[in-house]
Amino acid sequence: MAKAKSYYFCQECGYQSSSWLGRCPECGKFGTFVEEVVKMESGKRKVESGKTQSMPKRIQEVTYNETKRLSTHCAEFDRVLGGGIVPGSLLLLGGEPGIGKSTLLLQTALAIHDRKLLYVSGEESEQQIKMRADRLTHSSVSPERADSSPSLGEQLKSAQELYVVSETVTQRIFEHIDAVQPDLLIVDSIQTISTEEVESPAGSVSQIRQCTSEFQHYAKTTGVPVLLIGHITKDGTLAGPKVMEHIVDAVLQFEGDRNYGYRILRALKNRFGSTSEIGIFEMQGNGLREVPNPSEFLLGQRDETLSGAAVAATLEGARPMFIEVQSLVSSAVYGTPQRNANGFDMRRLSMLLAVLEKRCGFKLGAKDVFLNIAGGMRVSDPAIDLAVACAILSSNVDIPISPRIAFAAELGLSGEVRPVSRVEQRVAEADRLGFEKVFISKYNIRELDPRRFKIEIVAVSVIEEAFRGLFA
Ligand code: TYD
Ligand code: MG
After folding, report:
1. 195 CA to middle of ligand 2, Å?
2. Tell me: the pLDDT tens digits for 199-243?
3. Are 114 and 71 spatial neighbours (Cβ–Cβ below 8 Å)?
4. I need a labelling partner for 23 at 20 to 30 A (CA). Which of 167, 211, 280, 362 fits?
5. d(Cα 420, Cα 443) in Å, to the nearest integer?
6. What's the predicted TM-score (pTM) here?
7. Residue 155: enclosing H or E segment and its boundaries?
8. Are residues 315 and 286 in the same domain?
């Protein structure tokens, strides 16, 4: 007989304790412990039955097949995964409610037309899933979408082997799996799924932990990959289950500003690929569209005569991304000048302002400074520094910088223009996008062969030089 026992779990980090605690010794949060009844399996049954299954092997004898990765038929998604879904892997897709997780996975499920899939939803009925699928495959809404995936609409009608079911109990989900025998399982969302093994409600730490390990066991023993959706709390952590992050093979995060169309998919953890790659999507009326050339999309059109804008050649992962930095400098109305940055680190902005004050002699202390990264992007690449500084200077002197000029350099505390990584790739991309001039650090110029590029390369060593080059 199974024995019921209760434990106290920290709802923030999943720390388990046999008694109630006021403060979690693991994450230090107060008042996060909640009692959860856990039904214990009697004895060590599972360990014994699995005794003969695994045997240590010499590493030379272990074989695997890299080509077995399952393509999602979506270049951006595959890129973030590191080239497709690895058989037997357990993936977690996290994101705020309403950001588009269900849309992304249902759309992916519809695109993987050569496999048998099972889409389990604990949030929506089969009818609602169908309604969404119809919306996603309805290509007449936006004609330009038709050429990117011309047959998505027809696929739904013909040989599509996508099974959908609305279900919340893992034991019954596994019955459905036995009946369908899918090649890929999608579960939307882990917070709505519960197992009979644990008595606490769906979404609690012990439920999430137990359900996740049941799916992990299924994935590892059958080789069928499992994609789980998980919600994220407002402060950006996966709701409750820090515990999940350790169990799953990859944690993908879907994020974006809801006021803009774009969504960014990034890997926070990936056992089978790099975590620096990002995938960029645009949410449209009929689902998510891949954005293969984010620069062209982010730069948009700009009036030549407006001051305060500069283009930065940044890298996200291995991919160059050109981003417009906008700045507004105006006389401070109140005693304390205002500083405001969107998509850029505030402390970094203060540092750059101090450098500009000291080196370029601007009285920025008496000015309000607002900074915005166009398109709601968040940038942490230090190569954006020079563009930020030049945008601020441009607004301050009210002289526009040509939109055909790009910047790629970091700024040091003494105003020196520092080299950045992979400058060649940035310059080549600027060249390809039709920029006329690119400002880089003098220390980067050795890595470049200027004859290879049409673009004019301006190498500077201190910020004053860039300033003179632009506004003198
Ligand atoms: P959804 O995938 O339900 O979010 P999540 O599963 O992360 O909670 O996405 C919901 C939002 O996406 C909703 O605000 C409507 C929007 N949306 C579109 O703009 N176009 C579409 O084709 C679809 C299906 C949704
Ligand atoms: Mg959803």
Report:
1. 20
2. 888 888 888 889 999 999 999 999 999 999 998 765 555 555 567
3. no
4. 211
5. 9
6. 0.76
7. helix 152-157
8. no
